[in-house]
Amino acid sequence: MRSEEDLIRTLRTAADQAAQPPAAPGSLPPGSLRPGSLRPGSLSHAVAARRRARRFRQRAQVALATAAVVIVAGGTAAVLSGGGWQAQPAVTVDEPTEDKPTVGEPRLQVRPAGEVWPGAVVKMPAKAADGWKYRPVTGISPTEVLVTAESSFEKAGRLEVYDTSTGTARVVGEMPAPEGVKGYFSQAVEVGEKYYAWYGESPNNRDKWADFWIMPREGGTARQVGEVTGDLSRVERIGVTDDHLVWSVRQGGVYRIPLAGGAPEKIDDTDGLHLTSWPLAAGYAPGKSGEKNQNRVVNLETGQSTAVEAAPGTTQLTCATDWCFGAQRDRTVVQRIDGSDQEQLPEGMEFFGGELLGERFALVSPSSGGDPAGDYIPVRMVYDPATGQIGGVHRRSPEGSTSYGFGTSSSPTTIMYWDEDKKGHRECRTTSPAGNVSCQSTERGGGKEFTVLNTLAIKPAS
Amino acid sequence: MDQTAETAAFDEFIRTRGDALLRYGYVLAGNSEDAADLVQEALARLGDAWPRVRKKDSPEGYVRTIMVRLHINAWRRRRREDLVAAVPESGRVDQYGDADLWAELQELPRKMRAVLVLRYYEDLPDAEIARILGVSRGTVRSQAARALDKLRIKRVLQEAR
C-alpha cells in the first residue's frame, strides 16, 4: 500500500523533471519586455503569438458563427478541426483521425530544405560520448555546429564543436557555475572573433543578477568577466569583441565591461537600442506589444545609423545587415534595409516572427491545409530573400505533434534542428456515454540523432 | 499604469513565474507539450485580462485556475506544432523511482487527477479546490477518495482536512 507522501513526492519529482521546451525561462534570454524583438521559442513570444491568434480567431468566429453552430450541433467537430483552426470553439473534442476530412491541396508546394539546399541539412548525434545531451547553439562554419552539452535539463555544462564533415566532436571547454549561486543557468552563447562568451542568471528567483563569461575559441578555461545587478542584469543579448563584453538590456540601452575586468559602463547614445548582433543594434517605433517595427539599425562601432521604414500595415518588421522581414496580417513582407525591393510573399506563407535565421533567412509558417499523410507539409519554411528559394523544415506528422528547435545562440542563430525518429502518436478513447471521443497526441522515440539545417552551408547569393 | 508599464509587468510575470507554471502544467497534464500548451493558453488569457486581474486578484492564482479548468474541460491544443519550439525530452518518467505511480496517475480521469494535483501538489484545502473546479466540497472529497483508492494509496493526511 502506498502513502500520500508517495503521491506528494511523485508529483514533486515529476515537476522537477518536467521537460520544458527551451521557451522556459530557464535557458533562453527571456527578452520579454519588448516582444517585438523576441526570439522564436521564448515563452513570452509564444504567449504574444497566441494572443494575436486569439484576437484573429475571435474575429473569425464572428464571421463563421452560423456555420460553427451547425457543425457543433451536428457533433462533427472534425469538420472544424480540419476546416480551419480559427473556427474552433474554445472547448474542442478532437475526433479520430480517420473521420477527419482533408482540406484540399496545400496552397503552396514546398520541397524539404535538404533537397533545396543539399549539404545544408545534415545529421548529428543528439548526445555526447558520455551521454550528456547536446543542445545546438549555432553554426560557426558551413560544417561546424557549436553545441552545449547538458548534464541535466537545460544545465549547460560544456561547450563543444561538432564537425559534420568528419562526424567528430571537439570539446572547447567546461562551462562552470560560479560558487555560491543557487539555481544558476548559463544562458545564450555568443561567438566572437577570439572568444566564445555567455552570460548566466539564476532565473528562478527574484534576484536581479547576472554574470558574464568568456572562453578562448581555440579552447581552454572559462573565465568570469564580471557580475552585474539591478537594471544592468536584465540581459537580453550579448556581444564580444577582443577587449570588451557588450550587452543590451530588456528596457533598452547597451552596456560594456572590459574583458580584463573593471566597471560596466553604458555605451553613449544607446538609449532605446537593443543588440541584434554586435556591432548592430536596433531601435523600435512605438506600437502594440509584440507588433513593433524596427525603425533604425545602428552600427555601434562606426556610429552609423540607418533609418528603416516599414510599409503601411506592416508589423514586427525585423532587420539584419541587408534584409528586413515583417508581417502584413497573415502574409510575410520582405524588403531591403534601405526600403527597396519591397515584396509581399505568396499566400500561405505567414511570418513566424523572430530574427532572421543566419541574418538572412525568414522563418514562415505554412498555411493549414493539405493532407500530411500524403503530401509533404513542412512544419516551418525558410525563405531566402536573395534567391527566392523556399525550403521546408521537418515535416508535419499525420498523427499528433511535430516539434523542432532553434539554435540558442545570443546573436541570431544559423540553425534549426529536429528529430526525425520522433514520431507523433495519437490515442483516442470514448469519454462520455454520448460517444464523444477525446484524443491525446504525444511523441515517441527519437533522442539519438538530430537533423540540422545550417544556413551557413547555403551558398551566398551571387 | 499606462499600457507600456502594464505590458512590462505582464512580461515580467511570465519571466519570473513561467518556470513554476510549466512545472504545475506538467503535473496536471502529464507531458511537457500539453504542459507548455496549457501554460501558453492560460497566459494568453491572463494577458487579455491583465490590467483587471492585476488590480483585483492574484495573477498567479488566476492563471493556475485557468490552467486546471482548461485541462479538465478536455481542451485540446490547436496548433501544437506551432508551439513546441524544441525537440522535447523523452523517457523522463524512467528517470525517477516513482514511475509506476506517475504512470497510473496518467490513467486517471482528468478531473480526478486535477483534484489530486490541487490537493497534494498545490496543497490547497478542499473548499478552495471546490471553488476552483466549480463543484461541491463533497464532490472533491469523493473524487479524491476514489482516486486514492485506484492508486492504492492509504489515506492519512486527508483526515486532517
Automatic annotation (TrEMBL), chain A:
Transmembrane region(s): 60-85
Comp. bias regions, Low complexity: 29-47
Region (Disordered): 1-50
Entry keywords, A to Z: Membrane, Transmembrane, Transmembrane helix
Protein name per UniProt: Uncharacterized protein
Organism whose genome encodes this protein: Nonomuraea glycinis
UniProtKB/TrEMBL annotation, chain B:
The RNA polymerase sigma-70 region domain, residue ranges: 14-80
UniProt record, GO biological process: DNA-templated transcription initiation
Keywords: DNA-binding, DNA-directed RNA polymerase, Sigma factor, Transcription, Transcription regulation
Cellular-component GO terms for this entry: DNA-directed RNA polymerase complex
SUPFAM superfamilies in the cross-refs: Sigma2 domain of RNA polymerase sigma factors, Sigma3 and sigma4 domains of RNA polymerase sigma factors
One of the record's GO molecular function terms: DNA binding
UniProt xrefs under InterPro entries: RNA_pol_sigma-70-like, RNA_pol_sigma-70_dom, RNA_pol_sigma-E_actinobac, RNA_pol_sigma70_r2, RNA_pol_sigma70_r4_t2, RNA_pol_sigma_r2, RNA_pol_sigma_r3/r4-like, WH-like_DNA-bd_sf
One Pfam family recorded for the sequence: Sigma70_r2
Entry keyword Transferase: no
Keyword Transcription carried by entry: yes
Similarity remark: Belongs to the sigma-70 factor family. ECF subfamily.
Name this protein carries in UniProt: DNA-directed RNA polymerase sigma-70 factor
Organism expressing this protein natively: Nonomuraea glycinis
